[in-house]
Amino acid sequence: MNTERAKEIAASPVMANVTYNGVPIYIQQVDEESGTATISPLDEPDNKQTVSVNSLKEQ
């Protein structure tokens, strides 16, 4: 996924089907400068991690 699309998904009120390593996730915020996103699994909203936007897959 590219940074611009990740930003669109993060800003959208509509839930997108995005995964990280096969796990459905929610994108909380995107850092364009570093090309990373703060994400959390849908079933563990408090389990935040920062990953490369390139590692996110939109289904």
Brief overview, please?
The chain is of the alpha+beta class.
Account of the protein in words:
The structure is a single chain. 15% of the residues lie in helices and 42% in strands. It is of the alpha+beta class. It has a single domain (3-58), classed as Roll (SH3 type barrels). The protein is globular and about 30 Å long.
Structure summary, number of beta strands = 5
| Terminal Cα span | 11 Å
- Structural class, from secondary structure content? alpha+beta
What spatial order of strands do you see in the largest sheet? 4-3-2-1-5
How much helix, percentage-wise, in residues?
Answer: 10-25%
Sketch the major β-sheet.
5 strands, antiparallel
The secondary-structure element order is HEEEEE
**Overall body shape:** globular
Beta-strand percent range: 35-45%
- The CATH architecture category equals Roll
Write the layout of secondary structure elements.
Blueprint: H1 3-11, E1 18-20, E2 23-31, E3 36-41, E4 49-52, E5 56-58
Antiparallel strand pairs: 1-2, 1-5, 2-3, 3-4
What structural keywords apply?
single chain, SH3 type barrels, 5 strands, alpha+beta, 1 helix, 59 residues, globular, five-stranded antiparallel beta sheet
